[in-house]
Task: inverse folding
C-alpha cells in the first residue's frame, strides 16, 4: 500500500542556513520553517524533536537538541526615530564543542539590566550574535562561555 503525504503538507519557508552541530560540524543546509515561526523557534526545546532539512542534496531529519547554532543571512535594519536604545557588545562565543563565533550582541535593555550578563541570563533559550554576513541564533545550552572582546560602547555606534 502506498501512502500519500500530500494532505500532511503545510506551507513552509525554505531558509538557507549555516547549521553548527553539537560537535562543531558546520554544514550548509536548507531549513523548512512555518511562516508563522521565527528562526530562533527552531532551537526552542518545546518544539518537535526532529527538524527536516536538506543537507548535501538529501532530506535529513536533524535532532533539535543536536543543533548548537543556526546562521542566517544578515538583514540590515535602518534606525528610525522612536526606536529604543540598543546595547551593543562585541563578543566571542565559545561553544561546548570548541567552536568560537565572533560578532556583536545587540539588545534593548530594561532599566538596571544593561549588562551583558543580564542579557545572557534572560529568559530566552537562544542568543542572537551578529557576525559580518550572518546572524547566528545560538542555543544557550550549547554555550560554554562568552568573552567580551572590547569595552562596551554606551552609544551603540562604532
Result:
Amino acid at each position: 500500500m502506498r501512502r500519500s503525504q500530500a494532505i500532511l503538507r503545510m506551507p513552509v519557508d525554505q531558509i538557507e542556513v549555516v547549521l553548527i552541530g553539537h560537535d562543531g560540524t558546520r554544514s550548509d543546509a536548507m531549513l523548512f520553517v512555518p511562516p508563522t515561526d521565527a528562526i530562533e523557534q527552531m532551537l526552542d526545546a518545546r518544539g518537535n524533536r526532529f527538524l527536516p532539512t536538506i543537507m548535501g542534496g538529501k532530506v535529513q531529519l536533524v535532532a533539535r537538541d543536536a543543533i548548537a547554532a543556526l546562521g542566517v543571512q544578515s538583514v540590515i535594519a535602518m534606525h528610525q526615530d522612536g526606536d529604543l536604545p540598543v546595547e551593543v557588545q562585541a563578543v566571542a562565543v565559545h561553544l561546548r564543542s570548541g567552536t568560537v563565533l565572533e560578532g556583536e550582541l545587540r539588545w534593548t535593555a530594561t532599566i538596571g539590566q544593561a549588562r551583558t550578563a543580564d542579557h545572557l541570563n534572560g529568559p530566552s533559550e537562544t542568543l542572537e550574535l551578529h557576525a559580518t554576513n550572518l546572524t547566528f541564533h545560538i542555543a544557550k545550552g550549547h554555550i560554554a562561555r562568552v568573552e567580551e572582546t572590547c569595552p562596551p560602547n554606551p552609544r551603540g555606534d562604532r
